[in-house]
Amino acid sequence: MATDADFGERLETRTVAYLDRIDDCAALLPRALDAYATDGAFDETVDEIAAVESECDDLVRGLTALITDAGPDDIGLLNTRINFNESALLDFYNELDVVANHTERIVQEVAMMRPDPGVEPFDDMREMAARIAEMTAVLADVVEGFVRGLARADATETLAEGIEAIRALESECDDLRNAAIETAFADDAIDQPLVYRELAILLDELANTIEDLTDRIVVIASKEPGIVTDADGE
Questions:
Q1: How far apart are the C-alpha atoms of 210 and 186, rounded to whole Å?
Q2: Are 92 and 209 in contact (CB under 8 A)?
Q3: Exposed, middle or buried, 71 (CB in 10 Å: 0-12/13-18/19+)?
Q4: Per-residue pLDDT of the chain (234 residues; tens, 9 = 90+)
Q5: 174, exposed or middle or buried, with CB in 10 Å at 0-12, 13-18, 19+?
Q6: Taking the model in full, what pTM does it have?
Q7: Cα–Cα distance, 86 to 93 (Å, whole number)
Q8: Please, are residues 114 and 177 in contact by the beta-carbon 8 Å criterion?
Q9: Which of 83, 116, 190, 229 has the most CB atoms around its CB within 10 Å?
């Protein structure tokens, strides 16, 4: 018979495997834009992103099924944090999957729109992609600690540093988005400025999604004293 610890360990293990693939997916985004700008293996990277995104879909379905198929007896009395936050946790995992989905969409849009990579707005977007990959790597650590804090009744997890890092990187993405759009419309030599505006907004939406995930963590953690999300420990 499964024990309380067994359920928590399964949730942690599956979450870490899922986060690894989301991180892999986002890490391919700057590589894809770099390849596009340098006539590299862009199409191959797009295909790789699609394959990883599909894996992420399978992994998140397994995670949500693990939670929804388990009743209170299966989860166990020691996992009261999971029981109490089950609905919010399911929503969280579904929102987390948007990171991989949106990454795939961005490279697909680049493939369809075929922007000129030799202009300043595209350089700004390459910088945004690099920031997003960094944000996702930090997010993986934050979410791992968050789930560990939920899965272990006696755990104390401090996530403030990672959350603040993500917020700072998202702010940098805002600045890069604004610069890309402003330059696209200010430079008469740039054809189809709306293309760059659309792509910059898509990248910004991905950065916003990552930051929004930290906001969800803060809301859930506000009811869980063992999970600290601010530097003051409150």
A1: 30
A2: no
A3: exposed
A4: 344 457 778 889 999 999 999 999 999 999 999 999 998 899 999 999 999 999 999 999 999 998 887 665 555 444 567 777 888 999 999 999 999 999 999 999 999 999 999 999 999 999 999 999 999 999 999 999 999 988 877 778 999 999 999 999 999 999 999 999 999 999 888 999 999 999 999 999 999 999 999 999 999 988 888 889 986 644
A5: middle
A6: 0.92
A7: 11
A8: no
A9: 229
Closest residue by Cα to residue 80 from 158, 157, 155, 159: 155
Using CA atoms, how far apart are residues 216 and 30, in angstroms rounded to an integer? 26
The set of residues, in sequence order, having a beta carbon less than 8 Å from that of 211 and lying 6+ positions away, is 135, 166, 167, 170
Q: Which residue has the tokens 């610890």?
A: 5
- Closest alpha carbon to 36 in 167, 199, 154, 157: 199
Is the Cβ–Cβ distance between 41 and 86 less than 8 Å? Answer: no
Q: What is the pLDDT of residue 78?
A: 44
- Cα-trace Rg, the chain: 19
Burial bucket for residue 166 (CB in 10 Å: 0-12, 13-18, 19+): buried
Burial of 141 (0-12, 13-18, 19+ CB in 10 A): middle
What are φ and ψ of residue 218, in 5° steps?
-60, -40
Question: What tokens does 233 get?
Answer: 């420990």
Instruction: Please measure the distance between the N-terminal and C-terminal CA atoms of the chain and give it in whole angstroms.
Output: 38
Tell me the C-alpha to C-alpha distance, in Å, between residue 175 and each of 31, 32, 124. Answer: 21, 22, 9
pLDDT at position 150 is 86
